[in-house]
Each structure stands twice: as C-alpha cells, then as structure tokens.
Amino acid sequence: MLWSLVKILIFVGLVTAATYGAVMLGEMSGHAQITLAGLEFRLGPVESLVALVVFIVLVWLLFKFIGLAAAFFRFLNGDETALSRYFTRNRERRGYEALADGMMALASGEGHLALAKAAKAERYLQRPELTTLLTAQAAEMAGDRKKAEETYKKLLVDDRTRFVGIRGIMKQKLIDGDSDTALKLAEKAFAIRPKHEETQDILLRLQSEKGDWAGARGRRAAGRRCR
User: Fold this and answer.
1) Which of 191, 145, 190 is nearest to 169 (CA)?
2) Is residue 99 within 8 Å of residue 121, measured between CB atoms?
3) What would the 3-class secondary structure string for 105-171 be?
4) pLDDT value at residue 135
5) Per-residue pLDDT averaged across 49-53, rounded?
6) Looking at residue 211, what is its pLDDT?
7) Which of 33, 83, 125, 218, CA to CA, is 20 to 30 A from 108?
8) What are φ and ψ of residue 66, in 5° steps?
9) What are phi and psi of 16, to 5 degrees?
10) What does the pLDDT average to over 40-65?
11) What average pLDDT does this structure show over 97-109?
C-alpha cells in the first residue's frame, strides 16, 4: 500500500510539473532557430521541448546500437561469446530490476504485483535460488496457498533453502489444522536450525498439545544449549 501511494504521488507530481511547464512554455515568446544541412528550422518553445525529448531518445538508442555493434565486431574477431554476453547483460539487468520491484511490492503488501514481478525475474534471470522464495511469499500474500506450498517444496532440494521451505510448508499445515504433519516438519526444521526461536516455540507447543512432555523438555533443553 505504501509503495502504491508513493507511485501515485510521484505520478501526480510529474503530471503537475509537466502541466505547469507546458503552460509556462506556451506563455513564452521567441523561438529557437536550428540550421541543419543548409536548412533552417524555427521552433517555438513547445516544439523545442519536443525536439529535446526526441534528441535524448535518439542518443539513448545510439548508445544501444553502439554497444550492439561493438559486441558484433568482437564476435567477428573471434570472440564467440560476445553477442551472448551482450544479451545476457541486458536480460540480467531487467531480471534484477524485476526482482527489486518484486521485493518492494512484497514489502508494500501487494502480493499479486510481487507474484508478477517474481515471474518476470525468473524468466529473465533463470536463477531459482533468487526468485523461488519471492514467488512463494508473494503467492502466500496473494492468497494462492496451493502455489505457495508447491513453490516452498522447490526450496527443499537445495541445502541453502531447505529450512525456509520446511518452515513455509509447516506454516501452511498449521493453517490447515494438520498438526501431525506440522509437528514432523517442525522437528525437521529444528534439526536444521536448533537456535531458531520461532521453530523452538512451535515445536514445543505442538509437542505439548500431543502430550509429548518428555520430547518437549528435551527440545527445550537442546534449545538452551544452542543459545
């Protein structure tokens, strides 16, 4: 919500500035004279602004073309990966921008937008270790619990993300009221990170509900030793 409000305020500010600028330009007198290849062009204030914007766009396109031409030249000179590196850099830039936008949307509580940005980031980056967690949390926020659980399961195959995947599925099972499965998952999560206080609390509560007092005391003692 906060991010949406910021974007709306920025948009309103830009529209207001553009409107004010257009009014000021319309009230200005005089003109700009441009001579090109023997031809003279007389531009009023508004036409001058439009010409400046077109010029900036053309310069940006020129730099893009120069970068592509340089990569193509290196390719012709024997660098077989020059073109692929050029397009890879562009894809990575767009991917990381989408990833950053997705994280901002997630922090702002915009689950559906975060889910769309995560899908875009995955399409460009093809690095699931970076995008899968964002996808899972965005799906969870958007209310798509089936997709969230399926995505959390993908995190189980990597040692670096297994704990996060188990914890995410555990919370899904707790919401469903499946305390038996949640208890098993809590035990697995505790085995990976015994110092994680939330996991300790959930495991202790589930064991207490099952009447496993010996297990609960053992987990509590183990948790204290790990602190």
Assistant:
1) 145
2) yes
3) HHHCCCHHHHHHHHHHHHHHHCCHHHHHHHHHHHHHHHCCHHHHHHHHHHHHHCCCCHHHHHHHHHH
4) 92
5) 65
6) 74
7) 125
8) -65, -40
9) -65, -45
10) 66
11) 89
Q: What type of residue sits at position 68? A: L
Report the alpha-carbon distance of residue 135 to residue 141 in Å, rounded.
10
User: For all residues of the chain together, what is the average pLDDT?
Assistant: 76
pLDDT per residue over 160-186, tens digit each?
Answer: 889 999 999 999 999 889 999 999 999
Query: What residue type is assigned to position 121 of the chain?
Result: A
- Give the separation between CA 176 and CA 170, rounded to whole angstroms: 10
Per-residue confidence band for 57, with pLDDT thresholds at 50, 70 and 90: confident
* Domains defined for the chain, CATH in brackets: 67-144 (no CATH), 159-227 (1.25.40)
The token pair that represents 30 in the structure block: 């005089």
Residues ≥6 apart with Cβ < 8 Å to 31 = 42, 43, 44, 45, 48
Q: How far is CA 154 from the centre of its chain?
A: 18
Q: What are phi and psi of 127, to 5 degrees?
A: -130, 85
The two tokens of residue 73 are 């030249």
Higher-pLDDT residue of 2 and 121 is 121
Q: Which element (helix H / strand E) includes 40?
A: strand 39-43
Q: What is the pLDDT of residue 8?
A: 57
Q: What CA–CA distances, in Å, run from 156 to 72, 169, 173, 189?
A: 42, 10, 16, 11
Mean pLDDT of 147-158: 90
Residue 17 tokens, joined: 């500035």
The amino acid present at 140, given as its one-letter code, is E
Burial of 51 (0-12, 13-18, 19+ CB in 10 A): middle
